[in-house]
Amino acid sequence: MENKEKPNKDNNSNESKKDNLFRTILTIVLILICVACSIFIYYLYANPKEKSKEKELAYTELMNSINEKKVEKITMTSGSATVEVVLKRRW
Q1: 3-state class of 47 per DSSP?
Q2: Cα–Cα 20 to 30 A to 76, which of 8, 44, 57, 87?
Q3: 87: closest CA among 2, 64, 78?
Q4: How confident is the model at residue 79, as a pLDDT?
């Protein structure tokens, strides 16, 4: 009767080891998925200026727009080499 119980303990031990290994692998995979999602979300929202509809305007084009009175407002941030130009709306 003892011999029958001993293999059963070994089977339980092996199943327990397999369960622990499975849980460990599953935990590692879930952590990797979370890290990958975090990196994806960071790069998605990291630099929203690149996604905005900014347009580069050549200096001569800007001057022509000013002379043709198409410019409503020009804003330059202190310490920046760029300006924000708001053109008048065409109705």
Answers
A1: coil
A2: 44
A3: 64
A4: 82
Query: What's the DSSP call for residue 55?
Result: -
Answer whether 51's CB lies under 8 Å from 23's CB. Answer: no
**How far is it, in rounded angstroms, from Cα 43 to Cα 50?**
11
Alpha carbons 6 and 37: distance in angstroms, whole number? 46
**What pLDDT score does 1 carry?**
46
Q: Where are the alpha helices (DSSP H) in the chain?
A: 2-45, 48-51, 59-67
Question: Residue 7 is encoded by which pair of tokens?
Answer: 């293999």
Model's pTM, two decimal places?
Answer: 0.43
Q: What angle do CA 24, 25, 26 make, to 5 degrees?
A: 90
C-alpha angle with apex 53: 78 to 87, nearest 5 degrees?
A: 70
User: In angstroms, rounded to a whole number, what is the distance separating the alpha carbons of residues 62 and 71?
Assistant: 8
